[in-house]
């Protein structure tokens, strides 16, 4: 037995040795540079001659985005053979946050994407608000100033100003906008029951009722990850809060002129409660975002709450599916309908990663209209450059609503430091409503939210 | 005392029920891993009609497991061997009282199991090592990660102390009279004597390193250094709802440890954990 | 006293001990001490950036800020988790160990199977149970439907924490069981025979003979369970990700350290509070267990 044990350990050691020796070329075909170049300290900017300079790029997993970025990287490497792009992705959301929080300060990243554009920056009316990560990075000199780069001009001025400018300097490129406050719907099912796209809250309720009468489950939402539920709530917020002026509501919260338990805020919660209780698939609180789309493509439901970026995944899962998209209406006035969204995937170039100039080259390459077009078409983002063609889906289903496009509550809202869980992550968390959650009525939740908001006031 | 027949029956029923609670989930995952995706969607938990071993090759390829597996073997093999040796170096003199302040050091080493989370300072330390010592032993390096994972303290140390205490001191004295040196005594006499507890130490250390979820994201940034858990995560991110492939990945990650466990399980049960008791 | 020579050779134990000590100091104890220091500062996760001492501000933020109620909930939940896991896991493990120890057919198989989840690791165990607890068409929900019941499992505010406790016990019961088995196997058989002749019942023989003899195993298991349970975050991370009222102190430490803001003072303070809690528990448990051992 000892011998076996010793043998096993020896085997491990041997394998280990092999791994260590074969570590470079054999291990990772996509990694052209040999080990020293990738593990080199940030300060060590000199590269041995004849070797490719590595651009370390960090992103999150989303298969359509990753595919197109890899294809762009390939073209970039063909055009600039002296560079090699090492594109690393992690799971989306929190794990991504963990990755950039440690790797950017460590100087292990040359270019990375933030999950949304600059936001949450404290304002003069938000005493005591926390400084967000991107701003701390900039304040501490980790982010490259892009103001003088010529490729900035390729983008709409307004979008660069909203999504990439901080203290009058351009530090980021928002790669596209997304709309996310609506529902995908199955056109065949709608046609079968003679249903039209609803433009008012009553029509929306009617659609759901008809589906229910015909034993079709109307809606799927991914409750387990919480944020997908927020998408629907935010679309209601944009239309209902302060009569459709949510910025006023948000500023009012800080100044004490509006409250989370005001009638308009309660109406948002109540309407969400109606949707959750009556029309959403049973057990939706257990559905995680990764499986949400399969309920829609598997025709277990007629609609799903999701962002427009998911269109590609729907098509990929079921190429012959006949589907559309509409914003969730909140009132009975069709003129007040809005579609909320945000800037997605915002590129920052670091200046401590060892290859800032390569990263800027990449961004320049990326910003060329034909490359950008490829990117937008593949990801399903709404373009932030002028004269870019979008996908058929976006043209037909989303563009008609873009006149009423508005940045989402989660982007506009500036939270207080140490805020309670019923308001954390810039959301209103309707998942806390019964039956899933503990609050029987919208009012109860709203009261707790207002209490938490006041408790978090700076002392 | 002979248990009665009915008591035996109750015992068997009890064990059988428990066995089901343990085996059914694992077998179900195995079953899912053999199914095609369509089959799974239509009929998630029926017995797989045909064995889709192609799932495994597919998962193996998609998850980059061949790269990650080698890294995991390296990390696990090296940290385990070094940790065990370090634990013996620490446990033996403390168990025997050959160094001053033994009791204090014992408590200090046992406390390593619940110290305040050191990760922030570790992160800074690794950056310091990378920038000021050598890039191969600091942040984002294989050796750096192994240094962090290596430890002679904790539960394994505690068990070693307990077990060594149960070995007669006369042995030391006899060896001393024969003129054996300290180091030789440790490696040639003590180590073979404490084999069972070493086996336990090995399995516990191996489990800890092999299944490390957090360390790799925190301290390794290049994919070429990622261990096998990173492969599993990559998988979960990419194939969130493709359970057959996901189940294959689960099996691939779990298999090496299960095999190791089968090799040395006899030791672990037969008296090995007694070490923990004797302390 | 020291049998391996005199003079310089007397230094060997110290020399070799210095190795693990150096590792421990440099990579674990040292960084932990820094955590205590950081807990009194406004340090952020950007190396080289100067930081200042802010006194007890971080601790005040834990107990008196806007979300302190949740932090206290986390602490309560940690205690609940620790109590339930410690008691149920040990009770079950002891029972299983006693049952298996009566030389059942296939006893070796049983202990291997029950230990298997420990070997599989948290990531794998979490995936296994996520599949089992699939809220729609999952096997457990199918089973529940026999009783006209259904659940969203890890997506349920009221039940998710219970399921996490279940998975935790499922995972680590085997480890406790092995330690009890090892203890039971060291109990001499003739002791029972003496008891049998005296006409004791099974329960009495267990109470009077077996239990005192496996008391050391009991002590070790209780301590391991307490320390383990109070530090558990990975199973929570991999199943609910702290959602649905399932956060514990250890999860909060993880969340604030890795996924919160760049500020590291608060998570450091949380770590210190967690450490003090565990220390207190361990000391109390040792006192209680020692008292009991003396009684017998």
Automatic annotation (TrEMBL), chain A:
<feature type="compositionally biased region" description="Polar residues">
    <location>
        <begin position="30"/>
        <end position="40"/>
    </location>
</feature>
<feature type="compositionally biased region" description="Basic and acidic residues">
    <location>
        <begin position="42"/>
        <end position="51"/>
    </location>
</feature>
<keyword id="KW-0732">Signal</keyword>
<dbReference type="InterPro" id="IPR006059">
    <property type="entry name" value="SBP"/>
</dbReference>
<feature type="signal peptide">
    <location>
        <begin position="1"/>
        <end position="19"/>
    </location>
</feature>
<dbReference type="InterPro" id="IPR050490">
    <property type="entry name" value="Bact_solute-bd_prot1"/>
</dbReference>
<dbReference type="Pfam" id="PF13416">
    <property type="entry name" value="SBP_bac_8"/>
</dbReference>
<feature type="region of interest" description="Disordered">
    <location>
        <begin position="30"/>
        <end position="51"/>
    </location>
</feature>
<protein>
    <submittedName>
        <fullName>Extracellular solute-binding protein</fullName>
    </submittedName>
</protein>
TrEMBL record, chain B:
<keyword id="KW-0472">Membrane</keyword>
<dbReference type="GO" id="GO:0055085">
    <property type="term" value="P:transmembrane transport"/>
</dbReference>
<comment type="similarity">
    <text>Belongs to the binding-protein-dependent transport system permease family.</text>
</comment>
<keyword id="KW-1133">Transmembrane helix</keyword>
<feature type="transmembrane region" description="Helical">
    <location>
        <begin position="243"/>
        <end position="264"/>
    </location>
</feature>
<keyword id="KW-1003">Cell membrane</keyword>
<feature type="transmembrane region" description="Helical">
    <location>
        <begin position="185"/>
        <end position="210"/>
    </location>
</feature>
<dbReference type="Pfam" id="PF00528">
    <property type="entry name" value="BPD_transp_1"/>
</dbReference>
<dbReference type="GO" id="GO:0005886">
    <property type="term" value="C:plasma membrane"/>
</dbReference>
<feature type="transmembrane region" description="Helical">
    <location>
        <begin position="143"/>
        <end position="164"/>
    </location>
</feature>
<protein>
    <submittedName>
        <fullName>Carbohydrate ABC transporter permease</fullName>
    </submittedName>
</protein>
<feature type="domain" description="ABC transmembrane type-1">
    <location>
        <begin position="69"/>
        <end position="264"/>
    </location>
</feature>
<feature type="transmembrane region" description="Helical">
    <location>
        <begin position="104"/>
        <end position="123"/>
    </location>
</feature>
<feature type="transmembrane region" description="Helical">
    <location>
        <begin position="73"/>
        <end position="92"/>
    </location>
</feature>
<dbReference type="InterPro" id="IPR000515">
    <property type="entry name" value="MetI-like"/>
</dbReference>
From TrEMBL, chain C:
<dbReference type="GO" id="GO:0055085">
    <property type="term" value="P:transmembrane transport"/>
</dbReference>
<keyword id="KW-1003">Cell membrane</keyword>
<keyword id="KW-0813">Transport</keyword>
<dbReference type="Pfam" id="PF00528">
    <property type="entry name" value="BPD_transp_1"/>
</dbReference>
<dbReference type="InterPro" id="IPR000515">
    <property type="entry name" value="MetI-like"/>
</dbReference>
<dbReference type="InterPro" id="IPR035906">
    <property type="entry name" value="MetI-like_sf"/>
</dbReference>
<dbReference type="GO" id="GO:0005886">
    <property type="term" value="C:plasma membrane"/>
</dbReference>
<feature type="transmembrane region" description="Helical">
    <location>
        <begin position="153"/>
        <end position="173"/>
    </location>
</feature>
<keyword id="KW-0812">Transmembrane</keyword>
<feature type="transmembrane region" description="Helical">
    <location>
        <begin position="81"/>
        <end position="101"/>
    </location>
</feature>
<comment type="similarity">
    <text>Belongs to the binding-protein-dependent transport system permease family.</text>
</comment>
<feature type="transmembrane region" description="Helical">
    <location>
        <begin position="113"/>
        <end position="133"/>
    </location>
</feature>
<feature type="transmembrane region" description="Helical">
    <location>
        <begin position="209"/>
        <end position="230"/>
    </location>
</feature>
<protein>
    <submittedName>
        <fullName>Sugar ABC transporter permease</fullName>
    </submittedName>
</protein>
<feature type="domain" description="ABC transmembrane type-1">
    <location>
        <begin position="75"/>
        <end position="285"/>
    </location>
</feature>
């Amino acid at each position: 037995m000892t011998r076996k044990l010793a043998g096993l350990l020896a085997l491990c050691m041997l394998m280990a040795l092999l791994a260590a020796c074969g570590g470079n070329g054999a291990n990772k075909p996509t990694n052209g540079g040999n080990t020293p170049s990738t593990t080199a300290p940030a300060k060590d900017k000199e590269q041995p001659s004849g070797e490719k300079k590595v651009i370390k790029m960090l992103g999150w997993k989303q298969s359509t985005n990753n595919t197109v970025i890899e294809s762009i990287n390939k073209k970039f490497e063909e055009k600039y053979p002296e560079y090699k792009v090492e594109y690393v992705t992690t799971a989306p959301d929190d794990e991504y946050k963990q990755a950039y929080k440690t790797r950017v300060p460590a100087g292990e990243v040359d270019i990375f994407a933030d999950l949304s554009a600059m936001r949450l920056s404290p304002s003069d009316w938000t005493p005591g608000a926390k400084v967000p990560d991107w701003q701390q990075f900039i304040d501490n000199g980790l982010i490259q100033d892009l103001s003088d780069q010529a490729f900035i001009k390729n983008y709409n001025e307004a979008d660069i100003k909203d999504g990439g400018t901080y203290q009058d300097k351009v530090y980021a490129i928002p790669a596209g906008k997304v709309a996310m406050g609506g529902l995908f719907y199955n056109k065949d099912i709608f046609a079968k029951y003679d249903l039209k796209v609803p433009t008012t809250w009553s029509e929306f309720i009617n659609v759901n009722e008809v589906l229910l009468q015909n034993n079709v489950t109307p809606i799927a939402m991914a409750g387990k990850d919480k944020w997908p539920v927020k998408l629907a709530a935010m679309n209601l917020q944009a239309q209902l809060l302060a009569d459709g002026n949510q910025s006023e509501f948000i500023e009012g919260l800080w100044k004490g002129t509006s409250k989370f338990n005001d009638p308009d805020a309660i109406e948002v919660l109540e309407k969400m409660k109606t949707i959750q209780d009556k029309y959403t698939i049973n057990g939706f609180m257990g559905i995680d975002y990764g499986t949400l789309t399969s309920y829609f493509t598997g025709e277990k439901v007629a609609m799903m709450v999701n962002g427009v970026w998911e269109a590609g995944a729907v098509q990929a899962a079921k190429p012959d599916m006949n589907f559309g998209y509409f914003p969730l209406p909140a009132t009975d006035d069709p003129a007040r309908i809005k579609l909320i969204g945000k800037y997605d995937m915002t590129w920052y170039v670091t200046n401590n990663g060892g290859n800032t100039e390569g990263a800027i080259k990449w961004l320049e390459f990326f910003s060329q209209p034909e490359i950008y077009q490829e990117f937008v078409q593949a990801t399903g983002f709404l373009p932030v450059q002028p004269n870019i063609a979008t996908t058929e889906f976006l043209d037909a289903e989303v563009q008609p609503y873009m006149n009423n496009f508005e940045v989402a509550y989660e982007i506009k809202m500036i939270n207080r430091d140490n805020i309670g869980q019923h308001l954390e992550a810039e959301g209103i968390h309707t998942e806390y409503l019964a039956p899933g959650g503990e609050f029987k009525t919208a009012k109860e939740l709203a009261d707790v939210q207002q209490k938490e908001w006041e408790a978090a006031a700076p002392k | 005392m002979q248990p009665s027949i009915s008591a035996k029956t109750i015992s068997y029923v009890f064990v059988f029920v428990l066995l089901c609670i343990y085996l059914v989930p694992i077998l179900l995952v195995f079953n899912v891993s053999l199914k095609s995706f369509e089959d799974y969607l239509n009929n998630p938990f029926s017995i797989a009609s045909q064995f889709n071993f192609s799932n495994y090759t597919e998962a193996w390829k998609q998850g980059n497991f061949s790269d990650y597996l080698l890294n995991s073997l390296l990390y696990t093999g090296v940290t385990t061997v070094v940790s065990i040796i370090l634990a013996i170096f620490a446990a033996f003199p403390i168990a025997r009282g050959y160094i001053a302040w033994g009791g204090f050091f014992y408590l200090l080493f046992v406390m390593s199991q619940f110290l305040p989370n050191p990760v922030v300072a570790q992160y800074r330390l690794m950056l310091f090592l990378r920038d000021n010592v050598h890039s191969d032993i600091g942040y984002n390096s294989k050796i750096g990660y192994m240094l962090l994972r290596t430890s002679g303290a904790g539960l394994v140390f505690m068990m070693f102390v307990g077990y060594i205490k149960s070995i007669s001191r006369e042995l030391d004295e006899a060896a001393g009279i024969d003129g054996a040196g300290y180091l030789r005594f440790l490696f040639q006499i003590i180590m073979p004597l404490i084999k069972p507890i070493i086996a336990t130490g090995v399995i516990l250390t191996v489990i800890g390193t092999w299944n490390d979820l957090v360390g790799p994201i925190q301290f390794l940034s290049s994919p070429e250094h990622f261990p096998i858990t990173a492969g599993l995560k990559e998988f979960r991110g990419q194939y969130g709802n493709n359970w057959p492939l996901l189940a294959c990945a689960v099996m691939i990650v779990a298999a090496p440890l299960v095999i190791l466990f089968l090799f040395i399980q006899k030791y672990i049960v037969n008296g090995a954990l007694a070490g923990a008791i004797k302390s | 006293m020291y049998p391996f020579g005199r003079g310089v050779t007397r230094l060997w134990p110290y020399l070799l001990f210095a190795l693990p000590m150096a590792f421990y100091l440099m990579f674990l104890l040292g960084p932990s001490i820094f955590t205590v220091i950081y807990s009194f500062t406004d340090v952020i996760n950007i190396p080289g950036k100067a930081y200042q001492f802010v006194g007890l501000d971080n601790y005040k933020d834990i107990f008196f800020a806007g979300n302190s109620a949740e932090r206290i909930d986390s602490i309560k939940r940690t205690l609940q988790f620790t109590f339930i896991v410690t008691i149920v896991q040990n009770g079950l493990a002891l029972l299983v160990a006693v049952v298996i120890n009566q030389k059942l057919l296939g006893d070796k198989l049983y202990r291997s199977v029950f230990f298997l989840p420990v070997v599989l690791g948290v990531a794998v165990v979490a995936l296994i149970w996520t599949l089992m607890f699939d809220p729609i068409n999952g096997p457990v929900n199918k089973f529940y439907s026999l009783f006209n019941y259904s659940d969203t499992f890890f997506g349920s505010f009221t039940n998710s924490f219970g399921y996490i406790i279940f998975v935790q016990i499922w995972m680590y019961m085997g480890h406790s069981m092995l330690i009890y088995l090892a203890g039971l196997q060291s109990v001499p058989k003739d002791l029972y025979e003496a008891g049998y002749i005296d006409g004791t019942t099974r329960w009495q023989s267990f109470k009077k003979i077996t239990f005192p003899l496996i008391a050391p195993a009991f002590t070790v298991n209780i301590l391991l369970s307490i320390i383990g349970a109070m530090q558990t975050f990975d199973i929570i991370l991999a199943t609910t990700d702290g959602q649905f009222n399932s956060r514990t102190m250890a999860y909060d430490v993880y969340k604030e350290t890795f996924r919160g803001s760049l500020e590291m003072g608060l998570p450091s303070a949380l770590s210190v509070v967690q450490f003090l809690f565990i220390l207190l528990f361990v000391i109390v448990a040792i006192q209680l267990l020692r008292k009991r051992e003396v009684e017998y």
